[in-house]
Amino acid sequence: MKRILITAALSIAAIGTAVAADLPQPAPPPQAAAAYIPTVAPVYNWGGIYLGINGGYGFGQSAWTGGGLSTGNFDTSGFLVGGTLGANFQSDAFVFGVETDLDYTGITGSIASACQGAPGVLGPCQTSNDWLGTVRGRVGYAADRVLFYGTAGGAYGDVKATAFGVTNSQTEFGWTAGAGIEAAFADNWTARIEYLYVDLGNASCGSACGGAPVSVSFTQSLVRAGVDFKFR
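Now predict its structure.
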């Protein structure tokens, strides 16, 4: 009897194993999805040497004083165009640099009754400027491809004083300060707009005023736009 029971149990186990093998097997557990890593665009690098062009408009004032003459302030204005050379160094979001530019200008202005204070002298006095340059430091904050900066340094240029067909021209040195915004529109190209205030101090009227010690002031506000190419 025991042998029969054992044989029956083994038969049942064999049948169960065969049936289980014929049944569909459960699907394997799903694999975990790969973690998504977003692609981050590289932050723009403002460091390097650059060369560019600029152009814009200047507006300001001049005054002739001394030698019995006092014109008061009169307006001067004109267009300008020139070149720019500079270099930047970037540390985190801060950008430090030095820049120089030289512009050809057509800035001029006059006052018709300028010489009414000089005995026996009547006629206009004219102040003009044919070229203007600056050498400046720059400090800025970069928001990736946009740079906000302040700038200050030295300025130089010619100041011409003209009266009664006689012109006296002198190269004068002064200072400048301003601010601007610059944006990178390609890997090596940037565009900017900036404002500069320029003060070239006082020139001497000299021979244009018959040798009289007349001082000619020249201050100017410049609004310029420019495009620069940055070398890698």
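The first strand starts at residue 48 and ends at 66.
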